[in-house]
Design a protein that fits this description.
Number of helices of chain A: 8
Number of domains of chain A: 1
Oligomer: homodimer
Number of strands of chain A: 8
Shape of chain A: elongated
Strand content of chain A: 15-25%
Largest sheet of chain A: 4 strands, antiparallel
CATH topology of chain A: Jelly Rolls
CATH class of chain A: Mainly Beta
CATH superfamily of chain A: Jelly Rolls
DNA sequence: ATAATGCATTGATCTATATCAATTATCTAA
DNA sequence: TTAGATAATTGATATAGATCAATGCATTAT
């Protein structure tokens, strides 16, 4: 079986064939339709997945009922509510599919067993955590130093392929402004 | 030699005595006085340290010359400009001591060799990265959902011991507001 | 094709926070 | 211990971005 998940892992670390086979045997292909909720706020995450095609977003809901987008996860990225797993608590956010999507999914407990039995998996985890850290650091920097227009410019720069695929109001909720403000920003570019 | 750094590592992962000794042999104790710059923006980081006593802050400088605090690192935490090391580039931020401080310092290249030769060190790295991720996720959530007053309340809650140790304008720069605004927020509590 | 729903735009305000300026308080160093 | 520097407070005003409301534009479903 051809697995994009495994190709992705191999792009970061060396994985012996035997370990690749173990992962393959655990993967379940799953389709999730546009609009479907993958993980509901308050639920504990139990899986680690790779997005073969499609697009997801993680979002918080504030007291007024507005939603704020934490991150977009498109094809060829890992779909994982890691904080929920680490803290063994319900997630702060909901994850929904923005497009009809296909993922390769594994129970996290099974993945943990892999980690326990061969170091390559922890190395992989370390790599994606390092990546996540760099991305989060940039986002923190931009919230501290950038105004709305600069954050929008940075979004376009970081996710050139998402512009057009995503309704504007989701982009607004990612950069932390209202759709009206984003619309006005766009008029002057 | 008694090392708080090693105690800290042992609080996360098992470290064989032989590995402990290797770390000990690499540690250099260093004192840094209040106001001293530990890492200047643009310089590449080369060390990983543990703060025995004292307090540091990481800060960005924007175009107007105002500084924005990324994080405070007090005693018993790791002092490390990891993004600079990972990306092999000059740091985006400056690190300065806010108090006379003592750190246990190691060349990161040496630490890397430890990692290469025994898995406990990578496990440790993984743990502190997981921690960092949780903290950064919370900060992202608060920038998205909280106003200035809520971010200040959260700061007090997360760092109860720092209030009073740190000039207010640094706290303001951490939560992303001006000192004037923080002063006004404080009047009504 | 038409209705219905959700999305984007635009205008008129409102509000949180920034900016500028002056004053007072606190710290630091000779 | 006092002078100078740095920090905090307070007031007046400015501004980025939010909110509310209306209209127009697409997309989907009937």
């Amino acid at each position: 079986m051809k697995s994009k998940f495994i190709d992705y892992v191999k792009s970061f670390v060396d994985v012996p064939k035997s370990e690749q086979d173990k992962l393959t045997s655990l993967i379940k292909i799953r389709r999730i339709s546009k609009g479907e909720v993958y993980l509901l706020k308050g639920q504990s995450a139990r899986t680690i997945s790779f997005v073969n095609e499609g697009l997801f977003r993680y979002f918080y809901v504030n007291k007024k009922g507005n939603d704020l987008t934490k991150v977009f996860i498109p094809e060829n990225f890992i779909l994982l509510a890691y904080s929920s797993i680490l803290e063994k608590r319900g997630a702060y956010y909901t994850i929904e599919a923005l497009e009809d999507s296909e993922i390769e999914e594994i129970e996290f407990t099974k993945f943990d067993e892999l980690c326990y039995n061969h170091p390559c998996w922890n190395s992989f985890l370390l790599k994606i955590l390092q990546n996540a850290l760099l991305i989060k650091e940039q986002r923190e920097r931009e919230f501290l130093m950038f105004n709305a227009g600069q954050r929008y410019a940075s979004f376009l720069c970081k996710f050139p392929d998402l512009e057009g695929r995503i309704p504007q109001h989701f982009i607004a909720s990612y950069i932390g402004i209202t759709p009206e403000t984003l619309s006005r920003l766009r008029k002057f570019r």
